[in-house]
TrEMBL record:
Family matches, as InterPro entries: RNA_pol_sigma_54, RNA_pol_sigma_54_core-bd, RNA_pol_sigma_54_DNA-bd, RpoN_core-bd_sf
PANTHER family: RNA POLYMERASE SIGMA-54 FACTOR
Protein name: Putative RNA polymerase, sigma-54 subunit
Domain RNA polymerase sigma factor 54 DNA-binding intervals: 337-495
Ranges where the RNA polymerase sigma factor 54 core-binding domain occurs: 135-322
NCBIfam families per record: rpoN_sigma (TIGR02395)
This protein's encoding gene: rpoN
Source organism of the structure: Leptospirillum ferrooxidans (strain C2-3)
Amino acid sequence: MIRQSLEIKLGQKMVLTPQLQQSIHLLMLSRLDLVDEMIEEVQVNPLLEMLEPGETATPDGEEFSSDPGSDSESFAQEEMDSWDVDAASTRGDPEDQPSDPLSTWEHPMLEGLDAADSFRDEQLNREEPSSDYSYEKFLAGGTSLEEHVNWQLSFSDLNPRERDLACFLSGNLNEDGYLQISKEEIPAELLEGVSFEHVLGVLQECDPPGVGARNLRECLLIQARQLDLVDSLVWRILSDCMDEFLASQFKSIMKTLHATESELESAMAIIRRFETKPGRPFDQDAPTAIAPDVLFRDAGGGEIEVSLIEAGIPRVRIHPTYRDLLKNMRKDDVSRSYFEDKLKNAQWFLKSIEQRKKTILRVAEAILRYQRDFFFQGPSALKPLVLKTIAQDLGLHESTISRVTNKKYADTPFGLTELKFFFSGSIASSNGDDHSSVSVREKLREIVRKESPEHPFSDQEIMEQLSKEGIVIARRTVAKYRMELDIPPVNKRRKATH
């Protein structure tokens, strides 16, 4: 009986490999950040190289295949074929994975290699787009962290009072994504009849991972929990040995947690990928250049074509010289293990890039199926759509859809928009149809645009106008939408006409 229990426990044990952690990281990146990541990966992995314009991927056309003559274990291609970073985190053999992934954590004891600025600049200046696609028109302020979190909260199951508290908390996140207000500092009326712990828990489930934490330890634990690592060695290090961890007292950690050196190294490889400043990508001190990932083009005849925009993305391959070197290397060569590990890293990185592209395209195609009217009629034709619908359609995890739609942009017949723009909650109508909250905002904007300059509509009158179109919302909702659209109140609009 004891043996059976042990086998069941081992069979259910979570294995989150550094490669899968890297895949999650790549999926979350914006297009421009991805370019930086690719350049940096080429620098730290000698088996990767940038392709010059006109070069083919590999001499033999087998971009991702390892040397068939090698006695190293074959690369698990099936790992990526049905790739979903959340579901796949339960798969993988830790013995097949390297223990030194590129670190993104800034703590001194975990600093990784920095890419040389001169190398990055040289590559970016040299890269030739694969088409004449122009990005000059794309410069924007970007989405704030508060806006991004509130967008996700709009899809939550929180009731109105809970959502008010959640939005108050999101407004008190600092630039690093940490909650900078204590429960005692929150107005009593916001806490009345509401569980602070429940609302904070919902906020902390939002993207980016770690947002809403009150300290570094909680930030890292949130990320571990989102990866189903509760009760793992990663969790125990962060929850029980945080001080020793920050002080690099690894022998003390191994003794306290009864862990071996290899087990600790595997756990550290995962923790290195955690973000200590979740709000970092939302820094809005300067305008953000935006490069679209997807093009929705009116092909005529009532058809819309959707395609990935490849221009500006570096092309990377496994260096043929090192491939040949590994092929001819003696089995007992001391360098062989190093090159085999680098080859596995390179293969996984390239496959992760390709799968990222496929996943973005699949989500874009699904958006087209559900929001087809938008591409002919504009924002007023948007339909209610939630992340769960697309996730179920594609057989992916809901958080994967959230990662795909965040910081990924589409060039549409109605301008540049973030993919998450196509998702919004529903507002019931008197005729039984549901309206997208985005389309309701557009109808409100249209009502104000057509109003008499001498007699502009009050919020009550706008509410009545919307009701005539079958859209039933409260006056305070009208006021909220009006302010979100930067439309002044009625008295200011009237004054502006004189």
